[in-house]
Structures are given as structure tokens and as C-alpha cells.
Write a structure and sequence with these properties.
Number of helices: 14
Number of domains: 1
Strand content: under 5%
CATH architecture: Up-down Bundle
CATH class: Mainly Alpha
Largest sheet: none
Number of strands: 0
Radius of gyration: 22 Å
Distance between the termini: 48 Å
Order of helices and strands: HHHHHHHHHHHHHH
Shape: globular
């Protein structure tokens, strides 16, 4: 098999948590605040339904094709040539998205901390570290996530406690002043983050306890939703109606922390805990891209592709986006592409699978009846 490593369903859930949350916590309050205003805390709840549906589709497809990823079973469902086309579109999409993530990481670090460092240096350094993890395999990524996630959550809890004195509950009122529609509009774009759970289709074939994959996938989606609700609450309680004026509300929120004029500038801690999360996120997308390409090309090993694709990702991250504001516009306007690749295409693949198996079942039933009648 192209990947010899195996992980548990719990490790899969641990991997997916930072994969979704790493970039979402930084920018989702800004995006939802533009549409939902004081109801922005409701938006992650509505957008989480896209995550639950995505997990269901990925798991059902895996039940029919347990040892295959979407790159492989699309060929079996649609035929070789249409399947190859769908596989290529997925791979191109993941290359582009991973490049966008690298650019987002670079813009954040350079814009907030390493102001005099060239953007290309920051991007190349992260790409190289992720390439080492991807080359090590799925088990390496899983164990790294296991180490980082508890530390990150503990520090985030610490920061949340320090922010409590600055919170003002009055900012959330009146609740649903204009009905549900503002919060639903605010949920459309964040739903693209939840749809990233379709990456489970690249992880399900390598689970030790595949029967628990669906349960832990749902638990992971619920915890991501809960964390985004809490993050949006904190942004709302601090900034109120001006939340959408801050591109990185969480980063801006930490600048309010000051304990006895001693504990200050906690935003540097935010960067320190955010980088491991982004590292896991980029590594998972990077891994899905190279292992999917190896399967698309029918190679026996994906590791020779790791460094060439690293170079390609750096090129995409630099050439595809010209500025931070253009990056924000791309993130806002790409939600429909995520829906197409992570919801619409999987739904069609599953629908065709059901229709085909039903037709095969009816054909077998007719053959059995014919054999019985011939025997009589």
C-alpha cells in the first residue's frame, strides 16, 4: 500500500481539529461580524451543519470503498477518464488552497511580528518543515498533532481567563434583532472551513479502528464548532459592533491583556501557539495533495513527490495573491469552490454509487428468479 502508517480514529480527530481551527479562529470573527453583527456567535452553529454533512458523505463513500481515497474511487465510480479528470481537479484545487494557506501564514507573521523579514523566507521555512512531516508519513503528522494540541488548548484557556475582566456582555444584545438571516449569511463563508472535513476521505483508509471513524469525525466537528462559538463570543464581548473592523480580532483581543503592568504583550504567545496549528493544517493538505497525486499517477510511493510539490506550493503562494486585502477577498469569495469539491461532487459520487448498486442488486435478483424458474 502507498501509505504503510496507521492511525487511530482518535488521532484522526486530533489531526482534524487544528486543520480546521488554525486559520478559522483568526479570521472567522471578522468575516461573520460583517454579516451577523451581534449575532456572530450563532454563525458557527449554522455553518457546522456543512461539516457534519461532509463527514457523513466521506464516511459513506469510505464504507463502499474502504481502502481507497476520493482520487481512487472516483475512477471506479465514473470510469477511468472522467475519474482522472475529477482527480486532477481535486489535486489542482488542493495545490491552490495550500498555497493560499502558506500566503496567509506568511502575511500574518510578517505583518504582525517579523516586519523586516522577506515574505518568501517565512513561506519557504514553513514549507520545508511541513515537507519533512509529510515525508515522514501520516503517523508523524498524527503524533505531532497529539503533542501540540493539548499545549495549544491550555494556553488558549489561559488567555481566555485573562481576558474575562475586559468582557462586556451587553454587546450581544439585542439577540436576533433582525431575525435569523444575518447569522445565516454570516455562516455561509465559514461553512467552507467546516467542509474541509472532507479531507477525512484521505485518512479513513489508514485507520486502525475504521468503525469508529464516523463517531470521532462528528466529535471533532462539534468541538471545532464549540471553539469557534467561544472565539466569536470573546471577539463580540470585547469589540461589540466594531468586530468587523479588525482583520485578526483574536490577535487584537490579546493586546488588551495587562495584569498589574507586568504581564503584557501576550500577542507573541498567540503567534507561538498559532504556528503549530498552521503547521498541522498545511501538512494535512500537503499530505493529501502528494498522496493523491501518487494515486492518480499509480505510483508505489508518494515521497519522491514531496519536495517538487513543496516548490510548487511556494510558487502558488507568491504568484496567486498580490496583497493581504486580495487574500482576504479570495478567502471570502472561495466558499462556493469548497462547496463544489467537498459537498456537491461527493454527493454526486455517493448518489451514483447507490444507483449503481441498486441496479446491480435488481439484476442479480432477476437472474436468481430466472435460475429458479429454469430449475423448475
Amino acid at each position: 500500500m502507498i501509505e504503510k502508517g496507521r492511525i487511530s480514529a482518535l488521532q484522526m480527530a486530533i489531526i482534524m481539529h487544528p486543520t480546521i481551527i488554525a486559520t478559522a479562529t483568526l479570521i472567522v470573527p471578522y468575516i461573520t461580524g460583517k454579516y451577523a453583527k451581534q449575532d456572530l456567535w450563532l454563525s458557527p452553529i449554522w455553518s457546522s451543519f456543512a461539516g457534519f454533512l461532509t463527514i457523513y458523505l466521506a464516511y459513506q463513500l469510505n464504507k463502499h470503498y474502504p481502502k481507497k481515497t476520493v482520487i481512487q474511487y472516483s475512477e471506479e465510480i465514473l470510469g477511468v477518464i472522467p475519474g482522472k479528470v475529477i482527480g486532477f481537479l481535486y489535486l489542482f484545487f488542493y495545490v491552490f488552497i495550500t498555497g493560499i494557506m502558506l500566503r496567509e501564514y506568511g502575511e500574518f507573521v510578517v505583518g504582525n511580528f517579523l516586519i523586516k523579514t522577506p515574505l518568501i523566507v517565512v513561506i519557504i521555512s514553513m514549507t520545508f518543515v511541513c515537507a519533512l512531516a509529510v515525508h515522514g508519513g501520516l503517523e508523524v503528522i498524527a503524533r505531532t498533532a497529539q503533542i501540540f494540541l493539548p499545549i495549544v488548548l491550555a494556553i488558549l484557556l489561559f488567555i481566555a481567563i485573562l481576558l474575562i475582566p475586559d468582557l462586556q456582555l451587553k454587546h450581544m444584545f439585542p439577540v436576533m434583532e433582525k431575525g435569523l438571516m444575518p447569522s445565516i449569511k454570516g455562516a455561509v463563508i465559514p461553512s467552507s472551513w467546516f467542509s474541509e472535513f472532507f479531507l477525512l476521505s484521505f485518512l479513513f483508509p489508514f485507520l486502525l479502528d475504521r468503525e469508529k471513524g464516523f463517531k470521532w469525525g462528528m466529535i471533532s466537528a462539534f468541538l471545532v464548532m464549540l471553539m469557534l462559538v467561544i472565539t466569536n463570543f470573546y471577539a463580540l464581548f470585547l469589540f461589540g459592533g466594531i468586530t468587523d473592523m479588525f482583520i485578526y480580532p483574536v490577535m487584537s483581543a490579546t493586546k488588551y491583556i495587562s495584569v498589574a503592568d507586568f504581564l503584557q504583550h501576550v500577542e507573541s504567545i498567540v503567534m507561538a501557539i498559532w504556528i503549530p496549528g498552521v503547521f498541522i493544517k498545511i501538512s494535512v493538505f500537503y499530505y493529501a495533495t502528494v498522496i493523491g497525486t501518487a494515486q492518480w499517477l499509480n505510483l508505489s510511493d508518494y515521497r519522491p513527490l514531496v519536495l517538487p510539490f513543496g516548490f510548487l506550493l511556494v510558487v502558488f503562494s507568491i504568484w496567486s495573491i498580490q496583497s493581504l486585502m486580495e487574500l482576504i477577498e479570495v478567502l471570502i469569495n472561495m466558499w462556493s469552490m469548497f462547496w463544489i469539491y467537498h459537498l456537491l461532487i461527493p454527493f454526486l459520487l455517493l448518489f451514483i454509487t447507490f444507483i449503481r448498486k441498486r441496479m446491480v442488486g435488481k439484476r442479480e435478483e432477476r437472474n436468481n428468479k430466472k435460475m429458479l424458474s429454469d430449475e423448475r
